């Protein structure tokens, strides 16, 4: 009886341990390896990279990209860590830059479906010049705050729309996605990257 009780207790501890590990999975961010500028329907921009070995491609507006780990915009880390997010995009330090001048849809596509993907956004809008991302799915705010370069505050979320007046932070899309799409509004320039909390792929 005692041995059986100990075995059950041990199994429970292991189960709780695995649950905690899954809940606290480390955040990983896309290592963007190429980017091509474009901001009109006749000249789409593109980018590609990998997310912990999963291929990631992007099609939409691109006014610039940093693919060599020298971005430097994702600071302070406290503005990009919180909720389910355990690591800032600064750990990879790449970004894709937009100005919101493209009338079409921006789309990120994953080679393998990704569960609960994250989108980090830097410098969305400016003081007195709001800008927004309208997603095809409903995001939830995980982290936000000022950035080191221009200050500002957290992005905000209302339904499928992420708003910013010099807004920074990270949102999560709940579910399993093969792609993420959004439209945005004009402002001088802002940036994004995409990540996830491992493991990648659909729920098992």
Describe this structure in words.
The chain is mainly β and 204 residues long. Helix content is 11%, strand content 48%. The protein has one helix and 16 strands. The strands form two sheets. Strands 1, 5, 6, 8, 10, 11, 14 and 16 form an eight-stranded mixed sheet that branches. Strands 2-3-4-7-15-9-13-12 form an eight-stranded antiparallel sheet, with no helix packed on it. A hairpin with a 2-residue loop joins β2 and β3. The longest helix has 22 residues. It is globular, with a radius of gyration of 19 Å. The chain starts with a helix and ends in a 7-residue tail after the last strand. The N terminus is likely disordered.
Provide key terms for this protein:
eight-stranded mixed sheet; mainly beta; 204 residues; disordered N terminus
Strand content: over 45%
Query: What's the SSE pattern?
Result: HEEEEEEEEEEEEEEEE
Give the oligomer, counting copies of the same chain as homo and different chains as hetero: single chain
How many strand units? 16
Uncertain spans: 2-23
Mean pLDDT, to the nearest integer, reads 89
Structural class label: mainly beta
DSSP helix fraction: 10-25%
- How many alpha or pi helices? 1
Beginning-to-end CA distance, first to last residue = 34 Å
Rg computed from alpha carbons, rounded to a whole number of angstroms? 19 Å
Task: Summarize the structure in short.
The protein is mainly β and 204 residues long. It has one helix spanning 2-23, and strands spanning 27-29, 31-40, 43-51, 54-60, 64-66, 95-98, 106-115, 118-124, 131-135, 139-144, 153-154, 156-158, 161-164, 167-173, 176-184, 190-197. The chain is built from one helix and 16 strands.
